Amino acid sequence: IKSGATLVIDNRFLFPNLILDTIEKEGITGLAGVPSNFAILLRKSSLRKYKLSKLRYVTQAGGALAPALIKEFTGLFPEIKFFVMYGQTEAAARLTYLDPKLLHKKIGSVGKAIPGVEIDILKEGGEKVKRGETGEIVARGPNVMLGYWNSPEETRVVLRKEGLYTGDLARLDRDGFIYMVSRKKEMIKCGASRVSPLEIEEVVCQMPGVLECAAVGIKDEILGEAVKLYVVKNGKACRERDILRFCKINLSAYKVPKSIEFVDCLPKTHTGKIKRMELAKCAESAEL
Question: 5 preceded by cis ω (within 30°)?
Fold first, then answer.
C-alpha cells in the first residue's frame, strides 16, 4: 500500500475457484498463503485451467508446506517466483526466507535469516548445534517483541540473553540453510526415537488422494507413543490400507501410523497453522 499497490483480501477458500477468478479479474501480482491455501488450490480447484498471467510471485508461511506440493505448484507455473518464509507473531513479520532461485536445490528449507535478523540453532544448554543436529531456533533482531503484555513470567521463558526462543526445532545443512523439524511440544516420542510430525505429513501429502494431514502421538504400551494420523481426503479414492502401504514403503517402521482417522477438516489457528495439540487431546480422549 505504501508503494502505491492495491491490497485485495479474499478469504473465500471454501470456494477456491472464486479466489482464482479474483486473481485474474483484479490482475493480482502477488499472492500470500498458508499451506492449506496452496493444498486447496492444487487439489480442490480448477487451477490447471487458469493462466494467472499477471501473478509474479507467491509467498508461503504459516507452517511447513509439503515439498511435493511446492514442486506441483512450481511445475504448473514455473514463471511464478515461490518464496518460502518462516516467522512468528513474536517477531513480525518474518525471520527467514528462501530465495526462489534456490527453491529446488534447497527444497524443504525455510532458507536463511532476513537482513537485520540473526538466528542460532541451540541445544538445551544453549550450545550451538553442529550441522545436521536438531536444536531450537533462537532469533535476535529489531523485529523481536519486547515481551508479552502484563506477563513477565511468560516473557522470561522465551526472551533470554541468547534471544527469542521460538519453540520451533530445526536443523542446519552444510550450507547453513534451515530445515524445520517440528514444534518442540509436538515431537512424538517413539521408544528411544523422536519423530517429527512434519516428516510423516510430507510423505503422506505426496499421495494424490490426500488434501492435508496431521500426525500426533498416542499412548502405546511398548513404544510409549505411536503415531496417529488425521487425514483430509480431496475427493479421490484414498483408503487406509493405501496410506499404510505408502508409509511402509517410504518411512521407517516405527514412523508408520498405528491409527488413521479420516476427517472433514483439521483444526487451525486464525493464521492457518494446524492445531496438533488439540488433535492430540482428541486422540487421547478417544483412547480412554
Answer: no
